[in-house]
TrEMBL record:
The keyword DNA damage does not apply. This is Helix-turn-helix transcriptional regulator. Keywords: DNA-binding, Transcription, Transcription regulation. InterPro entries: P-loop_NTPase, Sig_transdc_resp-reg_C-effctor, TPR-like_helical_dom_sf, TPR_MalT, Tscrpt_reg_LuxR_C, WH-like_DNA-bd_sf, WHD_MalT. Signal peptide: none annotated. Residues 784-849 form the HTH luxR-type domain.
Length: 851
């Protein structure tokens, strides 16, 4: 017999109180536990054990055997005279109990009375007498009650007074370590994962563990035990109730009534719970569940005895759940009933929002159960087949199935086809238009869908809110790629908030991802990053970090990191994006991934490789792709590679020969201005830069100010160059913009920055600013003036150059040493003089007479 220390300790603690009750169904090891505890009990004093049965429903038998058990245990000394049980009259019975209690008042030691199988006693006289005894127990008398059901004695009073210790099924359940010890006694030592799985299946139920381990057909033995020990002992009406309500995984009173055709389902479930018939309440609500081994046994019995009712019960459950709006559970029961027409109708009504939710994988499993030859039977089945094909990447069959669905809907009454029409439109938008990149058509179809939804009621289309969120997202996506950015932002915001309210998180992720790219195109790195974070947070919450919906967020994150000069982080984000895209990405997203890759190649100084990638992307774009913004971004990428290859005339010619475009984006204007500067057309460049410098596009504004500074410096206008660079630095800092400083004639930008460094006080709170990142000079702050020792001879030589406008490189050239050595001496000078930067060092040196 297994010794369970934690429960033995609980019994030791329990018998310090008046009453300990072990209440659980059959097979939970109640009697075995108390027996093993009694045999090795550490507390002193006798234990009287009385196992009850039907004969103890008589007061005379009960009290006589109780007295006998006390005498047998040695609890009553020979000198103690206990009265005999009375004749069966109320007055004599009360007198006997008073005499009995008085006789036990002088027990020499604490005595424990174990009443096993107390559930077998139902006589009110016996239970009433026991209740009176428990309410006024002698000081040294304790009771341990073992019962399958809670006895009809006023335990609530003992509970309120703190005199009751209770052990129930949850306490008696075997833990994994205990189950291992139990099976080891039977010669079984399963691997830890197998043991844990067995404990989960048995839910810690001791009999289930033992029977599974002892017999070759363990689960068959468990079922036989439950049928004989639990089910057979119930009245016929209750047996039928249990069999029918075992079909769903959980049940409430209303669902039970739907399955049984009866009333009072909730009351029946509560009675079964109180009777410990392997029924437990789920939380504080109205739902109940059966122990999974008991539920499996009931389902098998139902299939054996009434096989014809199983599909009908599943269909009843499906209809009930559908009426309550629980689409996935309804779909599972409809599939179990093999009513494929009903399954398809549920897919149209509820399935598309599930497809965009955390339940997507479960929906796909249901769709896989539909026989393949049924996908052409009805419009709804054709839509279901298209959805399955989309999920499994079999994209070529989708148009065929959608065409079949439309032909089947053609002759249907419009009043009965609204939901199917909408589902078909959603599938067409996602699986055809977005896949091939037909953004103009996507915008038009989504607009029409929104108009149609506005005229429909919820009872006509139960998934109306979900469809609206999807349509808003599709329209916002279409508007983005067709270049209508302001309108796109409005619809994408509405889609994100609508998707969250409607419970379609994949749509919310997609909306935030497209908002992130929109913000990046508009030159707001901080805004783009906020949307990236929103998308990835939702994806992480629903374990969708590798779904295609979040891919664009990762690609935008890569662009942000590139703009901030963090090449390794940009590469990592690109890898995440490519992984999330999968094998069959939407056409627009596939091209964005190519654009990001080309940008990173350009950042690494590989313009030829970047141009090759961009040209290949243009060749691979499908003929149906209509995304003007995407085209413009690709042209912009090609133009940047041309500039990196010193081919400004190619950029000018390309923009001159392009078909009529809307106004150039700020980024396009900057690129063209760079080309004009490279071709010597400065007035044309300045005309563009004038507009961009005050643009809300911060990245382009920074770029414009840098180009202005370079142009001014080339003409010897040092003051104008300094002012422009100062503006570039000031605009770059809040958004952490770094890329333009490194990609626009980096050597000249560095020279300008070094000259500017000692003229400006620009710093970012809490760390080094962009100026220090460009020049590589990280000044030392906070040192006490001239307390770190005198300057060395070489430092004095370098100090003489600090009042000039020479850069560190020019100082190094004059002194004949390396630029890194000059910078090291400059940092040492700053530290010794307690200066924060070059200008402060000059002022401090003059005050100290060093200059």
């Amino acid at each position: 017999m297994l010794w369970r220390a934690r429960l033995a300790e609980a019994l030791d603690a329990g018998v310090r109180r008046a009453v300990t009750m072990l209440c659980a169904g059959p097979g939970w090891g109640k009697t075995a536990l108390v027996s093993s505890w009694a045999g090795t009990r550490s507390l002193s004093g006798p234990i009287a054990w009385l196992t009850l049965d039907a004969q103890h429903d008589d007061p005379l038998a009960f009290w006589s055997d109780l007295i006998l058990s006390l005498r047998t245990a040695g609890a009553i000394p020979p000198t103690n005279s206990i009265p005999e049980p009375p004749p069966q009259t109320v007055d004599d019975d009360r007198a006997f109990r008073r005499a009995f209690t008085a006789a036990l008042a002088g027990l020499p030691a604490v005595t424990v009375v174990v009443l096993d199988d107390l559930h077998r006693v139902t006589d009110s006289r016996v239970l009433g007498g026991l209740a009176d005894l428990l309410a006024d127990l002698p000081e040294r008398l304790r009771f341990v009650l073992i019962s399958r059901t809670e006895p009809a004695v006023p335990l609530h009073r003992l509970r309120a007074a703190g005199h009751l210790t209770e052990l129930r099924a949850a306490d008696l359940a075997f833990r994994v370590e205990e189950a291992g010890e139990l099976l080891a006694l039977q010669g079984r030592r399963p691997a830890r994962p197998d043991l844990a799985a067995l404990v989960r299946r048995a839910e810690g139920w001791g009999a289930g563990l033992r029977l599974t381990a002892e017999t070759p057909d363990g689960y068959g033995a468990v079922e036989d035990y439950l049928v004989r020990e639990v089910l057979a002992g119930q009245p016929p009406q209750v047996r039928d109730f249990l069999l029918r309500t075992s079909v769903p995984d959980r049940v409430c009173g209303e669902l039970a009534d739907a399955l049984t055709g009866q009333r009072y389902g909730h009351q029946t479930l509560e009675r079964l719970e109180r009777a410990n018939v392997f029924v437990e309440r789920i939380g504080p609500g109205r739902w109940f569940r059966y122990h999974q081994m008991f539920r499996a046994a009931l389902r098998h019995q139902l299939a054996l005895t009434h096989p014809e009712t199983v599909p009908r019960l599943n269909l009843l459950a499906a209809q009930w759940y559908a009426g309550k709006g629980n689409g996935l559970t309804a779909l599972n029961h409809a599939a179990a009933a093999e009513d494929w027409d009903f399954v398809a109708r549920l897919v149209v009504e509820r399935g598309l929002q599930l497809f965009a939710s955390v339940d997507r994988a479960d929906l796909i499993e249901v769709l896989r159960r539909i026989p393949a030859d049924r996908f052409t039977d009805t419009a709804e089945l054709a839509v279901s087949g298209a959805m399955l094909a989309y999920a499994e990447g079999d994209l070529d069959v989708i148009p065929q199935r959608l065409t079949r669905a439309r032909s089947l809907l053609a002759g249907r009454d419009p009043a009965y086809r609204a939901g199917s029409d909408l589902a078909l439109t959603v599938m067409e938008c996602g699986a055809v238009l977005r896949r091939h990149g037909e953004m103009s058509r996507l915008t038009t179809v989504s607009s029409e869908m929104l108009d149609e939804l506005a005229a429909l009621r919820w009872d006509q289309v139960p998934a109306r809110l979900q469809y609206r969120a999807i349509a808003l997202s599709n329209k916002g996506t279409g508007l983005l790629w067709t270049g209508r950015l302001d309108h796109a932002e409005r619809y994408l915001w509405a889609a994100a908030s609508g998707a969250r309210a409607a419970g379609v998180p994949l749509v919310e992720i997609s909306a935030f991802a497209h908002l992130s790219l929109l913000a990046f195109v508009q030159g707001s790195l901080n805004g783009a990053l906020e949307h990236v974070t929103a998308a990835t947070d939702v994806a992480r919450r629903i374990d969708a970090q590798h779904r295609p919906a979040v891919a664009l967020a990762y690609l935008t994150e890569s662009l942000i990191e590139s703009e901030r000069g963090r090449e390794s982080e940009a590469e990592a984000a690109l890898r995440r994006g490519l992984h999330a895209l999968g094998d069959n990405p939407e056409a627009t997203l596939a091209i964005v991934a190519v654009l990001v890759r080309a940008r990173l190649l350009l950042d690494r100084g590989e313009p030829l490789a970047a141009r090759s990638v961009l040209r290949r992307a243009g060749d691979e774009a499908g003929p149906r792709l209509t995304a003007p913004l995407l085209d413009r971004l690709r042209w912009l990428g090609i133009a940047e590679t041309d500039l990196a290859l010193s081919a400004p005339d190619a950029v000018i010619a390309r923009y001159a020969n392009r078909p009529a475009l809307p106004a150039l984006l700020p980024a396009e204007q900057v690129c063209l201005a760079r080309a004009y500067l490279g071709a010597g057309r400065e007035s044309a460049a300045e005309s563009l830069l004038t507009r961009v410098r005050e643009s809300p596009d911060r990245v382009s504004a920074v770029s414009a100010w840098i180009l202005t500074a370079l142009a001014a410096d080339a003409h010897g206008r040092a003051s104008r160059a300094g002012e422009a660079l100062t503006r570039a630095l000031a605009d770059a800092e809040p958004e952490l913009i770094r890329r333009p400083f490194r990609s626009f004639d980096a050597a000249r930008v560095t020279v300008l920055a070094e000259r500017q460094q000692w003229l400006t006080e620009l710093r970012r709170p809490g760390g080094e600013g962009v100026l220090e990142e460009i020049t590589g000079e990280l000044p030392v702050l906070g040192a006490a003036a001239h307390t770190a020792g005198p300057l060395s001879e070489r430092e004095m030589e370098v100090l003489q150059y600090l009042p000039t406008v020479l850069t560190a490189a020019e100082i190094a050239e004059n002194l004949g040493i390396s630029v890194n050595t000059v910078k090291a001496h400059m940092r040492s000078i700053y530290r010794k003089l307690g200066a924060g930067r070059r200008r402060e060092a000059v002022v401090q040196s003059r005050q100290l007479g060093l200059l």
